[in-house]
Amino acid sequence: MIIKYYSVNEANKILPQLKALVEEIKEKRELLYNEIERHELLEEEDKDNILELMYTKTQINTLDAEIRELIEIIESFGVYVKGLDPFLIDFPSEHNGEAIFLCWKEGEERIEWWHKIHEGFAGRKHISELNKDNPTKFFYK
Q1: How far is CA 50 from CA 38, 55, 56, 57, in A?
Q2: Exposure of 71 by Cβ count < 10 A (0-12 exposed, 13-18 middle, 19+ buried)?
Q3: In which domain, by residue range, is 9 found?
Q4: How far apart, in whole angstroms, are the C-alpha atoms of residue 17 and residue 98?
Q5: How far apart are alpha carbons 141 and 122 in whole angstroms?
Q6: Residue 40 CB: number of other CB atoms within 10 A?
Q7: pLDDT for 108-139, tens place per residue?
Q8: Sheet harboring 87-95: ordered strands across?
Q9: Looking at the 3D structure of the chain, how many domains does it have?
Q10: pTM for the whole structure
Q11: Which residues of 47-62 are buried (b: 16+ CB within 10 A; e: fewer)?
Q12: Are 60 and 36 in contact (CB under 8 A)?
């Protein structure tokens, strides 16, 4: 499998498309949480209402499948979904011959963070650190 490495500019160019998909996921995520809560309430307070329990379970499964399908579409861009709440996307990239991830978190306007492959979200650093050695190399490749 060939991995596409994104520059910051390339990642920011596709970000609006990904954000639109993330917005759709957020809507479905909220509906999913509501259905799960409703189902749990029914299990506690009205176990005999089998039809309603079956309906909420079906809704949960349907929303889960729809969210998974949207995640597959996002990942078809060659990026990785690393979290759902908040929504996190990692863009494969490279800096000085080392594989890294450019990192975007739900609510951020653009790509401004990165981390090494094994560091994860907790290791995020500002992209300005990538340009200390050669400011034009990373942003405009």
Answers
A1: 13, 9, 10, 10
A2: middle
A3: 1-141
A4: 27
A5: 27
A6: 11
A7: 999 999 999 999 888 899 998 887 655 444 44
A8: 80-84, 87-95, 98-105, 113-116, 125-126
A9: 1
A10: 0.85
A11: eeeeeebeebeebbee
A12: yes
In sequence order, the 6+-apart residues with CB closer than 8 A to the CB of 7 are: 93, 138, 139, 140, 141
Cβ-contact 80, 1 below 8 angstroms: no
Tell me how far CA of residue 65 lies from CA of 7, 33, 57, 58, in angstroms. Answer: 32, 14, 12, 11
Q: Mind spelling out the 3-state secondary structure of the chain?
A: CCCCCCCHHHHHHHHHHHHHHHHHHHHHHHHHHHHHHHHHHHHHHCCCCHHHHHHHHHHHHHHHHHHHHHHHHHHCCCCEEEEECCEEEEEEEEECCEEEEEEEECCCCCCCEEEECCCCHHHCEEHHHHHCCCHHHHHCC
Is pLDDT at 47 greater than 80 in this prediction?
no
